[in-house]
Amino acid sequence: ATPTAVMVGTGLGAEHGILIKGGESLEKAYRLTIVVFDKTGTLTRGEPEVTDIVPAEGFTPQNVLQTALSIESLSEHPLAQAIVKRGKAEGLSPLPVENFEALSGLGTRAKIAGRSCLLGNPRLMVQEGMALQGLDRQAADLAGQGKTCVLVAEEGLVIGLIALSDVPRESAGAAIAALKVAGLRVAMITGDNASTGQAIARQLEIDQVLAEVLPGDKAREIRRLQQEGQIVAMVGDGINDAPALTAADIGIAIGAGTDVAIEASDITLMTGDLQAVPRAIRLSFETMKVIR
Ligand code: ADP
Ligand code: MG
């Protein structure tokens, strides 16, 4: 690539709030076949809200929220913040928690008043041999609506579930449509449940869902796509997206994201407007045409 043309490309990008780190990423963008979006905080706004609290038989919504609020007060996960907000809005305050442990991509574990508590996704409950106490059906229905289900257990017994919904960014649908028109495949990668991921993917007309991917495994999923012969762009926002952004042929960090993600990326979008993704790719096409 001639340095001048690349400079033109990167200069134009800056005008549109697109920061391109080097000419090499422009060349790769030209050969792209698939764009993989992280779900939480990238395709969605990352501001989940509690929509449903379903107690198991013998418990009340308050019981469920009280335990969840107490544990989640110690977690920094976006789901935790939403649960804490709801608990406080209902006038509850957290009980003292001991032995708090974050289980990456799964949930949390802790002791409240000497009782062992566990909170997290269905996968965590299955892993811990926990029966869903008749909540299976409701959990499946809620996930089918694109909601994330957080199960709450005490002393080896599930006491209820909390469903949360995280709305897609307004720009998501148009951005995905533009990428597909450009002949690219569009995928979503998420640590969330497969049915939750698929419901959101259906809404946004996403071609492929990589669900229940633990934070440490996102990079491996990107490399798997590359082994299939794909040239991969990964769009992410969070700290746990950094390895995947690095593994991808082009890492795109969205501006509302963390410094770590921005550092690991080739392209940074300065706002949360996802339409900058097809714009950045189009820009690279145009720049490469000038060069060739
Ligand atoms: P994503 O890949 O969608 O950004 P994460 O990898 O952060 O999501 O988390 C994956 C899943 O792990 C969440 O959807 C949730 O089910 C579960 N999880 C992790 N931490 C917590 C927590 N503190 N409270 C509730 N659920 C959690
Ligand atoms: Mg994220």
TrEMBL record:
Q: Where in the cell is it found?
A: Cell membrane
Q: Family, per the entry? A: Belongs to the cation transport ATPase (P-type) (TC 3.A.3) family. Type IB subfamily.
What is the designated name of this protein?
Answer: P-type Cu(+) transporter
Its source organism is Syntrophus aciditrophicus (strain SB)
Whole-protein coverage range: 472 to 763 of 826
